[in-house]
Specification:
With 146 residues, the protein is an alpha+beta fold. The chain contains 2 helices and 5 strands; from the N terminus they run ββααβββ. The radius of gyration is 22 Å and the shape is globular.
Amino acid sequence: MSRVFSQEDGNLQSRPISTSRTRDYKDIDLTFNKKTTGDIFKKTEAAAVKQAIKNLLLTNKTEKPFQPYFGGNLNSFLFNLDTEFDEDDIRDTIENAIYNFEPRALVQKVQVNLSSDYNQVRILIEFQVISTKETDTLNVSLTRLR
């Protein structure tokens, strides 16, 4: 039986073992559409991260049990006066939420378009999936209903 030791153990005749671990990002599809087999679809890699970012940003603070600071709290911007915040406040909120609660994504760019006449906020988020270095975009549109 042959055992392989690391260089620190003094076994310099054998090659050291080097491993790299990649992690697959998987999540269930929240539309809950079924396959013909009866199983639900799953999302992988960038699609899973994209779904997680959208859920994070649309979650209000104190909505998740035992994690009162979790969420992007974007809906709160719809019910404030438009003089209380601007595009930079929304951009900072999005970047902080993703940085603090979604370690699989790195924000590249955030564009915010406020339409105070229509009580609407349109957001375009460009992010990079850290494990695959793949870049993807997410569009979020928030509208206040009367």
